[in-house]
Amino acid sequence: MHICKAMMAAVSVAGALSASAARADGTVEVLHWWTSGGEAKAVGELKKAFEAEGGEWIDSPIAGGGGDAAMTALRARVVAGNPPTAVQLKGPGIQEWAEQGALNDVQSVADEGNWDAVLPPALAEIMKYQGKYVAAPVNIHRVDWMWANPEALKKAGVEEMPTTWDEFNAAADKLQAAGIVPLAHGGQPWQDATLFEDVVLGIGGADFFRKALVELDPEALTSDMMVKSFDQLRKLRGYVDPNFSGRDWNLATAMVMRGEAGFQIMGDWAKGEFLAAGKVPEQDFLCWPTPGKGFVLNSDSFTFFKVEGEDRIEGQKVLARLIMSPEFQKVFNLAKGSIPARTDVPLDDFDACAKRSHADLLAAIENDTLVPSMAHEMAVPRSVRGEFLDLVTAFFNSDMSSEDAVKQLAAAIKRAQEN
Ligand code: GAL
């Protein structure tokens, strides 16, 4: 509770007022990867707010969940000397672009809105480069969630949501026996890596997750615990349908909505999809943390690239101010499935899944079981993440043994670190 209370005390009335008082008259071209139903609805809220301030919004969506295609497009734009004004970026990626001198800071906006007082300190750190804010966070997503269709579970005789991976496997076996796809999944590297990291948290716990997926400790990477994690991933492979390869994540969510599949393991942007389709939490769908104790953190943020022209620089400032306004953080996150990055936005109008996410986040901070997502670019540099994704996907799509997987993984990570 402590963080929340301390932050509540610091509600920045001045920040809220300045957000609505400023006129934009600026222009932003915004590069993002929010193209699914729920995502588009959420980013539409930002566009609406920006235009309401008199600004011009040029939308540059790059389809592809998880943002890998967007990051490729971004590099091409920067190399061509024509970066977008604002870019959805996160984690170490923010630091990498800042180190290259590609980003403008928005420290004056952060001072005015007192961002330090309203953001969890760990998140604020990620947004800063050399002590100055170069990014503005929109949300806190949780990666270790599973989504379920209650009707499908009932048909299969699954009475309770699983709290261990063994229970998950038992529930999945029942679904399979009932002719229902146990696990809706899209075979794309970032989705495979999402399953993998949730399994690592559940099998090994938060300390192990940190050692292996954040600190890249060779012993942890080659440990029995890692072998066990791959064994569970192999089990999950047996629970997906034959057409999983290349499927977009939101189409996997739709399988759960239709009752074709029992579960999906995916971050809470999946909730945005259910909501955009008019589904009601705890009625049409269930949310439940994946087996394991902790919270896998993913936070989206926008950065501001070095661009020419008063109009565009003004646009960056207005966008930064809007992103951090309590009003925006509320409407955006109600649509996105996440919870606000600001700690002082009341959650009264949020659903039970969001409230659980918030409570579990506070508990994870308290118990030191909060871990940053490897799959969603919060933990390690892109080059290292790339090695994880390649190996996990190769494992998922072959009959590689778990023992071989850990050996190859440790070797690949070592190579990436040496480069
Ligand atoms: C994540 C991102 C989320 C969500 C998801 C699927 O990396 O943080 O906001 O959109 O990708 O595209």
The kinds of small molecule bound in this structure are: beta-D-galactopyranose
Q: How many separate domains make up the residues?
A: 2
Helix content: 40-55%
- Class of the largest domain, according to the CATH hierarchy? Alpha Beta
Low-confidence spans? 1-24
DSSP strand tally? 15
Strands of the largest sheet, in order across it?
A: 2-1-3-13-6
Main sheet: strands, sense, barrel: 5 strands, mixed
Q: Can you count the helices?
A: 20
In CATH, the homologous superfamily of the largest domain goes by the name Periplasmic binding protein-like II
CATH architecture of the largest domain: 3-Layer(aba) Sandwich
What portion of residues belong to β-strands? 5-15%
Mean residue pLDDT: 94
Structural class: alpha/beta
Q: State the shape.
A: globular
Family: Belongs to the bacterial solute-binding protein 1 family.
Keywords: Signal, Transport
Function: Part of a binding-protein-dependent transport system for a sugar.
Protein name: Probable sugar-binding periplasmic protein
Quick rundown:
By secondary structure, this protein is of the alpha/beta class. Helices cover 54% and strands 14% of the residues. Helix 11 crosses helix 19.
Tell me about this structure.
The chain has two domains: 5-138 and 300-357, Periplasmic binding protein-like II (D-Maltodextrin-Binding Protein, domain 2); 142-297 and 363-418, D-Maltodextrin-Binding Protein, domain 2, CATH 3.40.190. The protein is 54% helix and 14% strand. The chain has helices at residues 2-8, 13-21, 37-52, 68-79, 92-99, 107-113, 115-118, 121-127, 150-156, 165-177, 189-214, 218-221, 224-237, 249-258, 269-276, 310-323, 326-336, 352-367, 382-396, 402-418, and strands at 27-32, 56-61, 86-89, 128-129, 132-133, 135-137, 139-142, 145-148, 181-184, 261-265, 286-289, 295-298, 301-304, 339-340, 370-372. The longest helix has 26 residues, at 189-214. Residues 1-24 have low confidence and may be disordered. It binds beta-D-galactopyranose.
